[in-house]
């Protein structure tokens, strides 16, 4: 089960796997969220839409993506619409709080596809005109040229995959844009959606040094908007980069160097007014990703498209327990299944109470604010944070070291502890499983 929870956490940020914030923004407040697993099931969810196609495969990528053999955009659009409506009907949610189009390269989709999916959402559930609608964009001239049309289609936030501002690194990574094109795309996106543009940047790249990373980050911060997502490059088995490193063609920075890069980025971003609100995400002027925040807070989300993941209660068929659902990976097979039965759900697993709490813990601890007592009680009304984690010797060591904090606010990592989250989580998960099993 612990392995299941850690895997779920990693998976949620590959799509990927953003309205739960300022009351003045006209969005859904946290108070609307009802107790998971109680008779009063939540009636809201976020929606993730996966566009599986890319023009080429990046050297480091093992995501679910395909190079299209022919243009089947109309068919893909029709099936995305149909699966959206089917799963919305199955979930019986009355409100979609945010929508995120990821991939793949969703900026290859025609803007009419985006508009069509959003129309399908509105037919089955309430989608506020102020709800966050994000589109991942590959910063090529083609991607840049379509930004305005995406805004007309209903997109109001862009996530730009800059990854690097070094020509040589972009070539090693197999990216098909240049640093200049990336900066131009960011500039155009900021013009269209000021304050609602995120940039993704990657560290730990081949031959990268801490000094070159600091210089690159400073350059990026001169042009970026109010949100930055940092990702450490990880070697995935079966990718081209993995083979190059294995064959000695490419060398990766040592672990202590990448650790220094992460700390350097945190310091630099803080100096530029960015607050770290999650392990990999930084925002200023409250420009947080509401869609991703819904993942970290353990809320329902519906996944549409080949390989998408979801977490929701299938109330439309009498369900009362949250399910982990995975859609069929291969686009052609997924299309066939959607045409035949309205959806391409390949795998569905009912989450036990422990599994649900594991996911709430793993996701919640990614946030700098951690998990407050009220939030934990939504999922575990009989067993509070102090009861679960306050008596363990292992947890006491983490508390005394200053890496972990358990107080009247809740459970969270300290500034230093957040950088060590991967080493802290196993102890928390072991204690959670022990406490739950003792009460079963």
UniProtKB/TrEMBL annotation:
CC per GO annotation? mitochondrion
- Identify the domain of life: Eukaryota
Gene Ontology terms, MF aspect: 4 iron, 4 sulfur cluster binding; coproporphyrinogen oxidase activity; metal ion binding
Pfam families listed in its UniProt record: HemN_C, Radical_SAM
Keywords (alphabetical) are:
4Fe-4S, Chaperone, Heme, Iron, Iron-sulfur, Metal-binding, Mitochondrion, S-adenosyl-L-methionine, Transit peptide
Report any one BP term from Gene Ontology.
porphyrin-containing compound biosynthetic process
Domain named Radical SAM core: which ranges?
37-275
Q: Where in the cell is it found?
A: Mitochondrion
Name the major location: mitochondrion
Q: Which SUPFAM superfamilies match?
A: Radical SAM enzymes (SSF102114)
User: Per its database record, what is this protein's job?
Assistant: May be a heme chaperone, appears to bind heme. Homologous bacterial proteins do not have oxygen-independent coproporphyrinogen-III oxidase activity. Binds 1 [4Fe-4S] cluster. The cluster is coordinated with 3 cysteines and an exchangeable S-adenosyl-L-methionine.
Family membership, please give it: Belongs to the anaerobic coproporphyrinogen-III oxidase family. HemW subfamily.
Cross-referenced PANTHER family: COPROPORPHYRINIGEN III OXIDASE (PTHR13932), RADICAL S-ADENOSYL METHIONINE DOMAIN-CONTAINING PROTEIN 1, MITOCHONDRIAL (PTHR13932:SF5)
UniProt name for this protein: Radical S-adenosyl methionine domain-containing protein
Give the source species: Sander lucioperca (Pike-perch)
User: Coding gene?
Assistant: rsad1
């Amino acid at each position: 089960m612990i392995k299941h929870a850690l895997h779920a956490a990693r998976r949620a940020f590959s799509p990927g796997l953003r309205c739960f914030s300022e009351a003045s923004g006209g969005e859904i407040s946290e108070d609307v969220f009802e107790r998971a697993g109680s008779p009063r099931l939540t009636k809201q969810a976020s929606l993730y839409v996966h566009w599986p196609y890319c023009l080429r495969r990046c050297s480091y990528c093992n995501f679910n993506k395909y190079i299209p053999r022919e243009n089947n955009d109309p068919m893909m659009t029709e099936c995305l619409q149909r699966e959206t409506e089917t799963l919305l009907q199955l979930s019986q949610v009355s409100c979609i709080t945010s929508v995120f189009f990821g991939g793949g390269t969703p900026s290859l989709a025609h803007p009419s596809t985006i508009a069509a999916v959003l129309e399908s959402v509105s037919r089955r559930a309430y989608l506020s005109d102020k709800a966050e609608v994000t589109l991942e964009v590959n910063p090529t001239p083609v991607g840049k040229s379509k930004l305005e049309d995406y805004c007309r289609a209903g997109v109001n936030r862009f996530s730009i995959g800059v990854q690097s501002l070094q020509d040589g690194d972009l070539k090693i990574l197999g990216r098909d844009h240049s640093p200049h094109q990336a900066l131009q795309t960011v500039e155009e996106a900021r013009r269209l959606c000021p304050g609602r543009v995120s940039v993704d940047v990657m560290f730990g790249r081949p031959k990268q040094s801490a000094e070159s990373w600091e210089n690159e980050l400073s350059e990026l911060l001169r042009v970026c908007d109010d949100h930055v997502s940092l990702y450490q490059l990880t070697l995935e088995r079966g990718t081209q980069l993995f083979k190059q490193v294995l064959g000695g063609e490419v060398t990766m920075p040592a672990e202590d160097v990448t650790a220094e890069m992460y700390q350097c980025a945190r310091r630099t971003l803080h100096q530029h007014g960015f607050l770290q609100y999650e392990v990999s995400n930084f925002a200023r002027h409250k420009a947080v990703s509401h869609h991703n925040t819904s993942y970290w807070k353990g809320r329902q989300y519906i996944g549409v498209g080949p390989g998408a993941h979801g977490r929701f209660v299938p109330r439309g068929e009498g369900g009362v327990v949250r399910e982990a659902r995975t859609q069929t990976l291969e686009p052609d097979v997924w299309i066939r299944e959607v045409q035949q039965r309205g959806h391409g759900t390949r795998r569905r697993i009912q989450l036990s109470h422990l599994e649900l709490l594991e996911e709430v813990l793993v996701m919640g601890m990614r946030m700098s604010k951690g998990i407050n007592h009220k939030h934990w009680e939504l999922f575990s009304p009989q067993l509070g944070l102090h009861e679960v984690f306050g008596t363990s010797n292992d947890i006491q060591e983490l508390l005394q070291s200053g890496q972990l904090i358990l107080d009247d606010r809740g459970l969270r990592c300290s500034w230093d502890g957040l950088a060590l989250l991967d080493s802290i989580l196993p102890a928390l998960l072991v204690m959670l499983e022990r406490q739950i099993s003792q009460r079963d």
